[in-house]
TrEMBL record:
Transmembrane segments: none annotated. Keywords: Cell membrane, Cytoplasm, Membrane. It is found in: Cell membrane; Cytoplasm, Cytosol. The keyword Nucleus does not apply. It comes from Tropilaelaps mercedesae. It holds the Pfam family Hyccin. GO terms for cellular component: cytosol; plasma membrane. One of its GO terms (biological process) is protein localization to plasma membrane. It comes from the Eukaryota. This is Hyccin-like. Belongs to the Hyccin family.
Length: 379
C-alpha cells in the first residue's frame, strides 16, 4: 500500500468517529489532495470510491456548515466522473450507485428549503439604456428626458432583464431526461460559492470538465447551461492562479460549442477570449493572479463655462452693521496696456454714502480675468 492509500485510509477511519474530528481533518490540505487524487485515479475506484462517496453523502446531509462546504468541494469532480463512467463501455462493471446517491443528495438540497418550499432564484440584468458599473448608457445625458417613450422603454427593459431560475423538481435517480438539469444546477451551486473553494478543487473541476468535453468514444452530450457554468469556473480560475488550465478549458468549450452550434456558449467564449488579449502576458510564465486593464471613457461631456460672472467669486463680507450691497464697477485708467481695470466698490443705497471697499490682490486678479474673458467672448 502506497502513501496515497495510507492517507485516504487514515481519513476514512478517523472521519467516521465524530464530526469535530472530521472538521479538523477537512481543514488539512494533505487529506483534501489525497481524496481528489483517489477520485481521479481509476485504479483506486474499486477500493475507495464507495467509502469516499459515503462520507461525502454524510457530510452533505450534516448540520455542520464546515462539513457541508467540504462536501461541495467534490461535486464537479464527482459529476464529471459520473458522466464519463456512465457512458463509457469499459466502466460498466464499476458500481456507480454510491456516486449517484451523493450527487442526488447535493441536488435535492438545492431544490427545496428546510421548510419544504421550492427554491426560486431571480435577479435583474442591467439594461443597455441604463448606465451601470459594466457599461454606459446608449442614451445621451442631454436627451435623457422623462418622455412617454422613454418611460415605456424603461419599463419594458426592466421586464426583459429579469431572470428567474427555478423551481426544480426533486429527483430519485439520474436519467437521460434529467441529467442536463442536474448537472447544470450542481455546477451553478458550485460557482455561486467558488470564492470559498480551494485551488485544488478548481483545478480538479477544470480537469474533469476537460475529460468530459474531449471524450470521443462515446461522445457525451452536454447542454449549453453546463458549458456556460464551466466557462464561469474557468474564467474565475484564470484570475486566481490557474491561467493555463483555465485558458485550455475555454478553448475546449469554444471548440465544442462551434461543433454543436451552441450560439450562447460561442458568444460567451469569444467574449472571454477577446477580453483576455490585453492581459494574456500577465500569467504566461507564472501562475500569479492576473487582471484586465480597463479604460473608463465617460460619455458625459465636460461642462465648460466660457463667461465668468460675478457670482463665481466670493467678495469680502462687510461688517454686520453695514447694510450696503457690494458691486463691481469698471473704469478706465491711463495705463500703457489699455486694459480695463476692475475695482470693487459699494453700491450706493438711497440716503447713504458710497465708501470704497477694501479688496485684496486675489480679488483684483479674479476681476481682471473675468473682464478679459468677457472681452474675448464679445469678439
Amino acid at each position: 500500500m502506497g502513501k496515497l492509500e495510507d492517507t485516504v485510509s487514515e481519513f476514512l477511519a478517523e472521519a467516521s468517529k465524530s464530526d469535530p474530528i472530521a472538521v479538523s481533518l477537512c481543514q488539512q490540505d494533505v487529506f483534501v489532495k489525497a481524496l481528489f487524487q483517489a477520485l481521479e485515479d481509476t485504479s483506486l475506484h474499486a477500493t475507495y470510491l464507495e467509502p469516499i462517496c459515503e462520507h461525502l453523502f454524510r457530510f452533505c446531509r450534516s448540520d455542520t456548515e464546515e462539513l457541508q462546504r467540504f462536501s461541495s468541494y467534490f461535486i464537479p469532480t464527482a459529476l464529471a466522473l459520473y458522466l464519463r463512467l456512465s457512458r463509457h463501455p469499459a466502466a460498466r462493471a464499476i458500481d456507480l450507485s454510491h456516486l449517484e446517491v451523493y450527487l442526488l443528495a447535493a441536488y435535492n438540497i438545492e431544490t427545496c428549503d428546510p421548510e419544504g418550499k421550492e427554491i426560486v432564484h431571480s435577479f435583474t440584468v442591467p439594461a443597455l439604456h441604463k448606465p451601470s458599473i459594466y457599461h454606459e448608457s446608449m442614451i445621451p445625458a442631454a436627451s435623457a428626458a422623462l418622455t412617454e417613450n422613454a418611460l415605456s422603454r424603461l419599463e419594458q427593459g426592466l421586464k426583459d432583464s429579469r431572470v428567474v431560475i427555478g423551481p426544480f423538481q426533486e429527483a430519485v435517480r439520474i436519467s437521460r431526461d434529467n441529467v442536463h438539469c442536474i448537472s447544470a444546477l450542481l455546477m451553478r451551486v458550485y460557482n455561486a460559492n467558488i470564492s470559498y473553494m480551494p485551488g485544488v478543487s478548481r483545478e480538479a473541476t477544470l480537469r474533469g470538465a476537460q475529460k468530459v468535453i474531449s471524450q470521443r468514444s462515446p461522445r457525451i452530450e452536454l447542454s449549453s447551461e453546463y458549458l456556460l457554468e464551466v466557462l464561469h469556473c474557468a474564467y474565475f480560475s484564470m484570475f486566481n492562479g490557474q491561467y493555463v488550465l483555465g485558458n485550455e478549458t475555454v478553448s475546449l468549450v469554444r471548440s465544442r460549442a462551434r461543433q454543436n452550434l451552441l450560439a450562447e456558449v460561442c458568444l460567451v467564449a469569444n467574449a472571454m477570449r477577446q477580453s483576455l488579449l490585453d492581459s494574456k502576458d500577465c500569467a504566461k510564465a507564472t501562475q500569479q493572479p492576473m487582471g484586465i486593464r480597463i479604460t473608463v471613457n465617460s460619455s458625459f461631456k465636460n461642462l465648460t463655462k466660457n463667461v465668468l460672472t460675478n457670482a463665481s467669486f466670493r467678495t469680502r463680507k462687510l461688517s454686520e452693521e453695514s447694510t450696503e450691497l457690494r458691486s463691481p464697477f469698471i473704469h478706465n485708467e491711463g495705463n500703457a496696456t489699455g486694459v480695463k481695470r476692475v475695482q470693487w466698490g459699494v453700491k450706493q443705497m438711497p440716503g447713504q454714502s458710497c465708501p470704497r471697499a477694501q479688496v485684496d490682490s486675489g480679488q483684483r486678479w479674479a476681476s481682471l480675468l473675468a473682464t478679459e474673458t468677457w472681452s474675448e467672448n464679445r469678439k
